[in-house]
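Async update (no meeting this week)

Hi team, since we skipped the sync, here's where things stand on the single-chain job. The sequence we agreed to prioritize is pasted below, unchanged from the tracker. I ran it this morning and attached the output directly underneath so nobody has to dig for it. Comments welcome in thread, and please keep replies under the output.
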Amino acid sequence: MVRKQYVLLACLIAATACARKETVVYSGQPAPARERLNDAAMVEMVHDANNTTINSARLAMDRSRNSAVRAVAQRLINDHTRINQMIAESGVAMRGNNITNGIAQSGRKTVSNLSTYSGAAFDRQFVDSQIQQHNWMISNLNNSLIPGARSKRLRDKLREMREMEHTHLRMLQDLQSDMRNH
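Output:
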């Protein structure tokens, strides 16, 4: 009987965790396998993920009244626009596939879900989803994109992007901590 209660509790915790991640952009989206992505698909993937960040941050600029959230949102817009330009300079043309199509669709869902929140709840959801997004991207950069890139130029651009993603993640985590303390 006790064992059943622990199993039930574990299922409840897992279900609650999943429910809280409804605005997470890539929840449940597996990291792409290295052999399934060529350089063109990698560029498309990065572009789509960056556009999700940009669109979410634009929504934050419209919805948030928190000056710290708005400052972070503006920084994300500027930096991710620059990342898209930097990746375009790699010389690799974009070409989507099922993975990148799923990322674009998931990104649209994220922005749509965020738009249902307002006030402090929006701010929390925005920051939480950005932390999830940046963790997801860093994982993919480390495990799939950088090691799988065939073009040295693209690999170098992805490494630059990884540094920016780490900076954003730290900034978002600090903001999340500040929001919890107030």
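Quick observations from my side:
Helices lie at 2-20, 39-63, 67-88, 98-114, 119-148, 152-181.
The radius of gyration is 17 Å.
Reply here if anything looks off.
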